[in-house]
Amino acid sequence: MKHSVKELQVKGKKVIVRVDFNVPFKDDGSIRDDNRIVAALPTINELINKGARVILMSHLGKIDFKKEPEEIEKAKKKNSLASVAKRLSELLKQEVIFSSVTRGEELESKVAALKDGQVLLMQNSRYEKGESKNDPALSEYWASLGDAYVMDAFGSAHRAHCTTVGIPEYMKKEGKPVAYGYLVEKEIHALGRCVNPQENERPYIAILGGFKVSSKIQVIDALLKKCDNVLICGAMAYTFFRAQGYKTGNSFVEEDQLEYAKQCLNSGKIVLPVQTVVANSFDNPTDVKTVNVYDLPDGMEGMDIGPNTLDVFEGYIKNAKTIFWNGPAGVFEKEGFQAGTLGICKAIAANKGAFSVVGGGDSAAAVKQFGYSNEFSHVSTGGGASLEMIQFDGQLPGIVVLED
Ligand code: ADP
Ligand code: MG
User: Fold this and answer.
1) What pTM value is reported for the model?
2) CB 366: neighbour CB atoms within 10 A?
3) Of the ligands numbered here, which is closest to the C-alpha atom of 273?
4) Atom of ligand 1 at shortest distance to CA of 304?
5) Which run of H or of E encompasses 361?
6) Are 342 and 314 in contact (CB under 8 A)?
7) What confidence tens digit (pLDDT) does each residue in 212-231 have?
8) pLDDT per residue over 338-376, tens digit each?
9) Could you tell me if the CB of 383 is within 6 A of ligand 1?
10) Could you tell me if 208 and 230 are in contact, meaning their C-beta atoms sit under 8 angstroms apart?
11) 226 tagged catalytic
């Protein structure tokens, strides 16, 4: 059995909380979008109200330890959580103590000085080479800093690292409680409904778009098994067109995925665009046309699905009772190629009876940009993690480890 943070009795106890503060930054170093910090507040506030001494751990960006020492130092500076501590403190309306190191005297003394209801944020866990390797000594050390562990970093739950798997394993060995937080609870619940919907929650459709077939092969496989139909859009549609023998001009096609695409088509569940919006250039589109997919002109590149495709997709969306969407329908970042992605937002919003989930970093950004975040049953905060939830029937390492 797994336990909720709600059940923890932690007054005066030091609670390690794995959060996902891997936020995007602007060029000037300020936080571009604090969504992920906001998403962690319910769990942090719950622990503050319980009088716990809260120790937050998160990763931020990547640090390549194979690089030269100066490069590593640069990456560390760039990926410091210091400004996140400031933002968190504004959101919590209380001081957030920041430990600029991930081990040693400063961290240990700041942890020891914590009072009930106080919050400390440890520096980026990836400052430690061992974090991504789930290094046992590092896990044991970090686990020794706390009396309990809460997992609320859904976006990292698909990775078996020290802060997601190693620490709770050590805690359990020592009889210390481990639990999931509110964000993880919400995600498990919503994505769980997309893993295996009941008969009365069908038809179940998936809409898959975005960039690469190759990066999503496993999830396509899983969705073909689970769904009644899989609607394909985005750049990956062109690999399917080529597999059918159509000309694809300068569109993005993965030649090494053609056989796989044919296999998927054999399932009989794939629905492809019938029309596409093409441009003479990706970076500087001066000539833009809507054409039938079997009539894609030489020298042009597919950028979005056309209105006739939307009509077809709307038919499936209207009838669906469960909808999982990953991957924008077109190059939504560019004006002129947003209609497909926006149209899908509108069609899903119009089907009030359906349970609808969006997963994926760019997809969630698109939905937010168009103002449709509240029109879905759930917008997942996890990119890779939301796809892996479906692929592995909810069995992510950072979630499985929370079982007694
Ligand atoms: P997510 O992050 O939601 O999983 P992906 O990373 O797979 O989505 O894909 C998002 C990217 O796919 C976007 O940057 C979008 O511009 C791009 N994209 C969508 N359609 C096309 C297309 N026809 N040609 C090129 N890029 C596309
Ligand atoms: Mg992406």
Assistant:
1) 0.90
2) 26
3) 1
4) 23
5) helix 361-369
6) no
7) 888 888 899 999 999 999 99
8) 999 999 999 999 999 999 999 988 999 899 999 999 999
9) yes
10) yes
11) no
What is the rounded CA–CA span in Å between residue 181 and residue 177? 13
For ligand 1, whether the C-beta of 301 sits within 6 Å is: no
359 CA to middle of ligand 2, Å?
10
Of 266, 277, 226, the C-alpha closest to 243 is 266
195 within 8 A of 393, measured Cβ to Cβ: yes
For the chain, the C-alpha Rg in angstroms (whole number) is 23
The Cα 181–Cα 273 span in angstroms is 40
Strand partners, 229: 205
| 36 catalytic per annotation | yes
| Residue 136 CA, ligand 1 centroid: distance in Å | 38
Q: In ligand 1, which atom is closest to the CA atom of 212? A: 7
**Measured from the CB, is residue 326 less than 6 Å from ligand 1?**
yes
- CA–CA separation, 58 and 44 (whole Å): 13
pLDDT in tens, 277-299: 999 999 999 999 999 999 999 99
Instruction: With both helix axes pointing from N to C terminus, report the angle between 217-226 and 384-391 in degrees, rounded to the nearest 10.
Output: 50
Pairing of strands 119-122, 96-99: parallel
Three-state SS for 270-336 is EECCCEEEEECCCCCCCCEEEEEHHHCCCCCEEEEECHHHHHHHHHHHHHCCEEEEECCCCCCCCCC
Residue ID of nearest Cα to ligand 1 atom 4? 360
Residue type, 98: F
Amino acid identity, residue 205?
I
Angstrom distances, CA of residue 24 to CA of 37, 78, 273: 11, 12, 32
Active-site residue, from 51, 61, 192, 361: 361
